[in-house]
Design brief:
single chain, alpha/beta, two-stranded parallel ribbon
Length: 246
């Protein structure tokens, strides 16, 4: 049985964490594990996570970061903590609000088999799908995704979808160093993956999978003002990796 661990970064999620959805999955099967990373929350998030761990001690891991360091750092920490255990075939991550459901995550993970070692969801609104996204977030996302795709020179539609998974071997190489960006770290993943497998092998070893459903849960923690900085952030990332991998 494939063992799959999902990293869930948590910052002040006391009122947003869909505990019942996690419990439903934990009760129904035991091939999926969860590592919740408390990213210096100031509310009751850690208490909720510890209670969940006490109920499911064999399937839940809790990593407590005392100081808030951002989503990229939380995911980086969680994945590396799980890789130390050498127990998982696949590691990935989802947003704490489960905008992408656990079922959708499991579905995209079924595509991980040789030669595919990296899969990620894509929020493509189309007939037959249920992609519920606020208009302004969709428009900002499309601008960012277009800029990212052009910069990477890859036909990727949605770099920022918060549902990604990797073979453990690939994750060890992608997450071997911290990211330089917080909210744009997903783009860094693509730069690292290109360097890892070679540009001509990306489409052979990675797969972008349109989601059947995705829900826009509450307000984004990314401030609208940050969207104005995105082009400059992408340029900073590009320059960094161009220098690093030259």
């Amino acid at each position: 049985m494939t063992k799959n661990c999902v990293i869930i970064p948590c910052y002040n999620e006391e009122l947003r964490l869909p505990i019942s959805e996690f419990e439903e999955n934990l009760t129904s099967q035991n091939s999926l594990y969860f590592c919740f990373v408390n990213d210096g929350s100031s509310d009751g998030t850690l208490n909720i996570l510890n209670k969940l761990k006490n109920r499911y001690p064999n399937q839940i891991y809790v990593v407590d970061k005392k100081k808030n360091a951002g989503k990229a750092s939380a995911i980086y920490t969680g994945i590396n903590e799980m890789l130390k255990l050498n127990s998982f075939d696949i590691v990935g991550y989802l947003d704490a609000d489960l905008a992408t459901s656990i079922q959708e995550y499991e579905r995209i993970c079924t595509y991980i088999h040789p030669p595919i070692e990296f899969v990620f969801g894509s929020r493509i609104k189309r007939i037959g799908s249920h992609i519920n996204r606020k208009l302004h977030r969709h428009l900002i996302g499309r601008v960012f995704a277009t800029l990212s795709s052009t910069m990477l020179n890859l036909p990727v539609y949605d770099t920022q979808c918060g549902a990604k998974a990797f073979t453990s071997k690939t994750a060890k190489q992608i997450f071997n160093e911290p990211f330089i960006s917080d909210w744009s770290f997903d783009v860094e993943i693509f730069f690292k993956f290109i360097h890892l497998v070679g540009k001509d092998k990306v489409e052979e070893k990675a797969k972008e999978i349109p989601l059947e459903s995705w829900r826009d849960v509450g307000d984004s923690k990314v401030k609208l003002s940050y969207s104005l900085k995105l082009p400059f952030e992408l340029l900073r990332i590009k320059r960094y990796y161009k220098k690093k991998f030259k």
